[in-house]
Amino acid sequence: MFANLKSMNLSQQAEYLTKALVQMKSYNHSDGERHKADFLKDIIRSYPSFKDNDNLVWTRDISGDELGRKNVFAFLKGRSRGKKTIIYLAHLDTVGTEDFGPIQRLAHDPDMLQEFFAQYGSDPEVQQDAQSNEWLFGRGALDMQSGIAVHLANLLYFSENRDELDGNLLVMFNADEEGEHKGSRAALSELLSLKEKMGLEYIAAINNDFISPLYDGDATKYIYTGTAGKILPCFSIFGREAHAGESLAGIDPTLIAAELTARISQNFQQTEKLEGELVLPPSCLYMRDDKKRYDVQTAVGYRIYFNYFFYEKPIRQLSKELRMIAEDAAIAVEHRLEGTYKDFLNANDLPERQLDWGTEVTALDDFLVYLEEKGIDTVSVMEEARKQSSLKEADARMIAFDIVEALHQSDPEKKPRVILFYGTPFLPANTVDLNTERGIFLKSSLEEVLAEETKNTGEIFKIRKYFPYLSDGSFLSFDGSDEDIQSLKKNFPALKSLFPIPLKAMRDLNIPVINLGVYGKSGHKWTERVYKPYTFDILPEIIRKLTKRILQKQGN
């Protein structure tokens, strides 16, 4: 690869590498991720500085991964013997190409896609971009093969100009970002090992996950000093079944699920309000009853979970609020059924009956205490349920639901109840801490570099605290308390097996992440494209300048 790159400038290298990476498939949860990792390792090993030091480029298998996926690492020591280290971070997987429909065969051919979209009159904006020759199309071009390419180009630059690197550079390309983040979670042990063996001091990580215009005509380049957190609140709802001809005598869990959805999904009132930040409301990702086929019995159980972004709110507080929402939903259904039943009796001139539509609401941790006080071995119930479910079910969320259902069934009372718990994935929120010297230093260094870039190029930048979408950067730091850790573990069924996450190791690493993103449009869409003038000309220079600024000042 180096033979093709050596005569190119930095911008040309980034574009050439992006095309080469787009042309190679690496769909999430496929063999392509493993092949892409080997390809990246071979690219780096072709660089002269690594050719005779191939021990400084390596891969690490993701333990227990059924596809044999792996992460890629490269270590470059600068001119000094210092321990200060900057991490370059990107993910190597992409989503699939089903959205390309009849032109799926072109999904990995940037040149053919540009020709196609240049004639595509159904979307004038896409057509205009294609005709401008300033955009590079293709699956993963934006998310985030161009990000990998920029890091590779800068790694090559610093490998040939070590005198400009007053510290060390660690490059890390992870698998499975688009799925369960197995790559980034597995990489933590490698970061800890390198820190211990080599005495490294991780100053910051630079991610370049993509950014896009937030509205029509928006030319601002948004820079983030952290990333939003995500939690997946799950509700197992157990009602009281009844014949459809006597449905008012039962408790229909679909009603409670509907009330929950109305209170949570797309409800901006449930979103933290942070000045100057792009914050997103929760959304329902799954809701289904337990009926396997048609019959005239109402559903007994219901499963529902939500995508829930959080930023500065402690997990304990979030859990409390979600439980209160569930209680309100259950009470609303209870009152509704009471009123409807009275109307039914009056309309049919029937005598009154004593029925109870009350539904208990609890969190998993409290429910476990309740069962244990009854003498139930909850550990055995959960482990057996996990084993049995894993034999027939691959989805970690459904396994968690099976575990909670087994716990409910172990209760002799089996009363109508709603159980709140958490499922995979969980991503912590983090941001540069401006209450520390390091945080102040990183923010000021970033502001200086961006101010210089604005003066030189006219680009407009805006710094925000939280990258608003999911990012591997979430796993490099965790500022939660011991209580937060325990709360999460107790309310997350089979956390160790379904979603191993070393929260204490993340807290020990405490690596701030700055996202200087590649720029483009339509991430995860068939019209995905990256803007070449900024991504290949300007962004690599910004990242390079920030890297040198941080290490030079830290060294002094």
Automatic annotation (TrEMBL):
GO terms for molecular function: hydrolase activity. This is Peptidase M20. It comes from Sporosarcina globispora. InterPro entries: Peptidase_M20, Peptidase_M20A, Uncharacterised_RocB. Gene3D superfamilies: Zn peptidases (3.40.630.10). PANTHER family: ACETYLORNITHINE DEACETYLASE (PTHR43808), PROTEIN ROCB (PTHR43808:SF27).
